[in-house]
Amino acid sequence: MAAALDRAGIDRPDGFTREVVFRRCVRCRECSVVREGDFVRVFCGSDLPTAWNITS
Questions:
Q1: Which residues are CB-neighbours of 29 under 8 A, at least 6 positions away?
Q2: How far apart are CA 51 and CA 48, in angstroms?
Q3: pLDDT for 10-25, tens place per residue?
Q4: CA distances from 11 to 1, 17, 30, 44, 54 (A)
């Protein structure tokens, strides 16, 4: 997002540089944030896919 705003010449707020990785759990079907490279769903304990899997 930051790169797109920069290309468009739109100012962005400070600290707007952290990437947030999301994956959908194949067991419980909930979306989850991957934290510190740990691809595990905190609430159900399932492994999260390493490849992007959220389409809608």
A1: none
A2: 9
A3: 998 877 777 889 999 9
A4: 12, 13, 33, 39, 28
List phi, psi (to 5°) of 31: -80, 145
- State the pTM of this model: 0.66
How would DSSP label each residue in 12-51? --TTTT---EEEE-TTT--EEEEBTTB-B-TTT-PBPPSS
Distance (Å, rounded) from C-alpha 22 to C-alpha 49?
10
Which tokens hold the place of 7?
A: 């290309």
Phi, psi of 4 (to 5 degrees): -65, -45
Select the more confidently predicted residue: 14 or 43.
43
